[in-house]
Amino acid sequence: MKRYMRALSLVLVLALLVSSGAAASVRGETSADALAALGLFRGTDKGYELTRAPTRTEAAVMLVRLLGCEEEARAGARSHPFRDVAPWAQDYIAYMYEKGLTRGMSETRFGAGEPCSAQMYVTMVLRALGYDEGDGDFTYQTALAFAASIGLCDETLTDGVFLRGNLAAVSENALLTQVKSSDDVLLNVLRARGAVDEKAAAAFLSAHAALLRLNEAFADTADGFSGEVTLSRAASRGGVSTSVRVDGTLARSHEGAHLDASLTAGGVAAAARVWERDSTLYLTRGGENTARSGDALSRMCALFTPRLAPNRYAALTLDESVLTVRFDDAACRALARAWMALDGAADETDELTRADVRFTAELSDSGAPVRVTVTVDAACRGAAGLTEYEATSSLIFPSRRGGDRFSRCADLYGFPARVRRRVHC
Q1: Measured distance between the N- and C-terminal CA atoms of the chain, rounded to whole angstroms
Q2: pLDDT grade, residue 1 (50/70/90)?
Q3: What is the pLDDT of residue 107?
Q4: pTM for the whole thing?
Q5: 3-state SS class at 308
Q6: Dihedral through CA 38, CA 40, CA 43, CA 48, nearest 10?
Q7: What is the DSSP string of 344-365?
Q8: DSSP string, 8-40
C-alpha cells in the first residue's frame, strides 16, 4: 500500500507548473532567440546580457525594434526636450517622444542611464499597443494590473528585479497581444507591414496556435474525461536500482475520480483500483480495501490537463502535430527536486546535479485522442551517493469536441486574439 501510494504520488508534481514559483522562472534566452529570429532583438556587443537590468534607453530602443520601426526612427528628423540622452540614442528617443510612447522623468530629463522597471516598460508597451491613459484605459499606477488583464504579462515576469530577460519575455508576449485599434495581435500587424521575417513569424504563430488548441482541448475535460494512463519510474541510488510502472484507466466526473490499473514494482504485478470522493482515497488491491484522506487522483487529473499559459514556459516548439514545452534551468531544477522528493528518491539536502523536465502533447485536428506526456530526467548527490532518476507519465484521452473549432487558429491568420480570450490563456 505505502509503496503503491508513493508511486502514485510521483505523477502529481506537475500541478506545480501551474501554481508554484518554479513556473515563474524567466524564459529570457528563448524569448530573445525568438525575437532575434523575427528581426526584433539584437542584444549588445557582449551578447544578450539577459541577467542584468536594462536602462531606460535600452528599453526604449527595444520597443522601437519590437514595433518594426527602427529604420523609420533613424531616418526621421525628430526632436525631444531631454538633455541626458546619448548621441547614438537620439533618434530612438525622439521617435518614442513624438509617438507619445514616453514622457520622460521630467520635462528635460529622460533618465537615460537609469534602470527601467517593469512598470515603466509595460507602460510603454501598452501605449505602443494603442492603450491610452487619456482614454481611461489604464494609469501608470495600474499598468501592471491592466497588462495582466489583457494577457500581456503577470507577476511571474514583473515581480522582483526587472532584467533584460524579463524585458525580452514581456516583448515576446506583446507580439501575441491584441492591438487596441485592431481585431488582430501585434505580430500579425507587423506581418501586414512586412516588418518581420515571414517564415519565422509563421513558425512562431503556429506553435502558439497549437498551445491554444491544447488549452481548449483541456478546457473540454472540465466536466469529466476518461483515458489510458501510463507511468514509469526508474531510480538508482547507492548501487540499488528500483522501478515502478502503472498502466490503467484514469477517469474523472462530477462524482469524483478513479484509477483502474496494473501496478508492477520489483518485478511483481498486481491489479488495483483507487477511487476518490470527498477528499478520501479508497484502494482495493488483492481483495483488501483500505482508505486514507487525500486528493491524489484529482491532482493527477489536473496534472494531465493544465492551463499552459504563454508566459509560463521556457521554450515552445511545434514539430508536425507534436507540441513540446520546455522549462528553463531554474524551473527544471525546482520541478525535478519536487518529483524526486515526493517519490523518496531525494532528500531536501541533496545536491541536484542534473535536471530536465519537458511536457509534450500529440495533437489531432480531427478530435482523435490526445496524448500528453511529462518526462523528468534528473540526478542528485547526497549522503547515500549519486541518485539517477527518470520518470515518464502519459495520458491518452478523447477530446470532447471536433477539430473545426480549432481550424481558424491552426496558423493564426485569422483572429487569434479572440481565440486567446476564449481559452483564457
Answers
A1: 39
A2: very low
A3: 93
A4: 0.66
A5: coil
A6: -50
A7: TS--TTSEEEEEEEEEEEE--T
A8: HHGGGTTHHHHHSGGGG---HHHHHHHHHHTT-
